[in-house]
Amino acid sequence: MLIPALNFNRQYYHLVIIFVCLQIMVSITHLSDKELLQLLQTGDEAAFSEIFNRYWERLSSYSIGLTKSEEESADIVQEIFISLWNRREHLSINGSLGPYLIKSAKNLSLRYIQRNVHSTEFVEKLAEFIADNSQDIEENISLKELQIEIDNAIAKIPKKMLAIYLLSRDEQLSYREISEKLSISEGTVKKQISNALKIISTSLKGKISVVTYALLLQFLK
């Protein structure tokens, strides 16, 4: 009779633990950001988890809107929460938690843009953004200035290289389709497009403030 009783006690104990954990989780979700921060400063992991669950999706969406990179945005959000946990005992937040976290996402995203504004990958994403938002661009003076900078850069591309670049970017032809159309190898097509992007990137050097300013007006408004 002792063994069944012992098993019952263990099962009851486990149920009690589960019930208590669920109660804690429910109570945590109803806390305000200020209350969660107070718990976080004491090292409360449940409070940290609730802050993460409450804000990670919003921060991720915001960062993706700026960087146009889901992978980079995931790293940015991770960095924000790692920093939040590591500095929990000395946190000094003036105002609400939400704006504080958004500002962190903004700063890290802009740092990414500053580092990558001349990279060919970033130029490609920028070109795609302009193509996908042509109507809005027509109504946005700053992005018109950005388009002028890119057009000036494209004008520096040699004629034959430009023809290949435009077939890819304007007509959305694949490397294979371009190679068949122009009777050249796919490797040549790929190299020419890569070189064209490098020319654009190089041409944009020295104009970071113009490019960044235009991007920020569009992304941060």
Automatic annotation (TrEMBL):
Domain of life: Bacteria
Domain RNA polymerase sigma-70 region: 52-116
An annotated Gene Ontology molecular function: sigma factor activity
Statement: the UniProt record of this protein carries the keyword Transcription regulation: yes
A Pfam family it matches: Sigma70_r2
Record bears the keyword Transcription regulation: yes
Entry-linked InterPro entries: RNA_pol_sigma-70-like, RNA_pol_sigma-70_dom, RNA_pol_sigma70_bacteroid, RNA_pol_sigma70_r2, RNA_pol_sigma70_r4_t2, RNA_pol_sigma_r2, RNA_pol_sigma_r3/r4-like, WH-like_DNA-bd_sf
GO terms under biological process: DNA-templated transcription initiation
Transmembrane region(s): 12-31
Coiled coil segments of this chain: none
RNA polymerase sigma factor 70 region 4 type domain: residues covered: 149-198
UniProt keyword annotations, A-Z: Membrane, Sigma factor, Transcription, Transcription regulation, Transmembrane, Transmembrane helix
NCBIfam families cross-referenced by the UniProt entry: Sig70_bacteroi1, sigma70-ECF
Family: Belongs to the sigma-70 factor family. ECF subfamily.
Name used for this protein in its record: RNA polymerase sigma-70 factor
Species the sequence originates in: Pedobacter jejuensis
